[in-house]
Design a protein that fits this description.
Two copies of one chain form a homodimer. The first copy, chain A, has 123 residues and is α+β, with helices and mostly antiparallel strands. The longest helix of chain A is centred in the middle third of the chain and has 13 residues. Chain A has five helices and five strands, in the order αααββββαβα. The interface between A and B is large, with 36 and 36 residues. The structure holds a DNA duplex (30 and 30 nucleotides).
Amino acid sequence: MTRQRQQILAVLAATRSHPSAEEVLAEVRRTLPGVSLGSIYRNLKRLREAGLVREIVTAEGRRYDAVTSPHPHFVCERCSRVYDLPEPVAAEALRRALPEGFAVSQIHLELKGTCPECGSLTS
Amino acid sequence: MTRQRQQILAVLAATRSHPSAEEVLAEVRRTLPGVSLGSIYRNLKRLREAGLVREIVTAEGRRYDAVTSPHPHFVCERCSRVYDLPEPVAAEALRRALPEGFAVSQIHLELKGTCPECGSLTS
DNA sequence: TGGTAGAATGTGAATGGTTCTCATTCCTAT
DNA sequence: ATAGGAATGAGAACCATTCACATTCTACCA
């Protein structure tokens, strides 16, 4: 566990904003000014493999999340912010509805639309 | 509607395999040998805007789908094939479970794991 | 405390999928 | 037939992510 890796994890644990790699870089640089983007990507990958971080792939890019409990996301189509949603009941039902032979390791649920911040704006 | 655009739509309508842009290119070239990758992307975008085609963004890349009815997908982690799943009951329940102020326009559900083709192989 | 092996870092270059530019070609409608 | 506008093909440009490599750090043990 290097200083860089700790900071990246700390940044992700401290925010609800699902930052992109660039945003993580900016935030980590506030305490470790010398960090490189390469290290951000490398460590995000390692942390992901270790199950400590999750990557959310959307049409707008990749965003990162400290893993707490599994939960679905809501992606705003206007500002592309990612919001957490409470765990839906659906997961187990879905797993049972699957055809034979499919082994599920992750359920990824994403709703799109406009968030409260954007919904109040005139288009 | 140009010949290229028709062919792209035809290719997507005729397969269940959720091809990538490159795979669409290869398939369209069987009847229109001169098509360029640029046209594939341009037309996939137009068809998407027209609601005739859907883009599925996964960690493994973007894949395309002729829109029939809304349905969730299963992505194989080993071969990255995308499979259609029957429409789950969950959608309406989910919409109701959302906090105030979120307006949903799309529900994107993706399961990951191994498909029957890969499940039988030794790792 | 010092020394060392192996892993992680920063830099910058490479990659690869997607978008853009632009000159040329194709439709459509007159 | 012909002009105007849109779509095309070719290739350059873009940009997020990954890679390569020389340097630095970390953890561990004497």
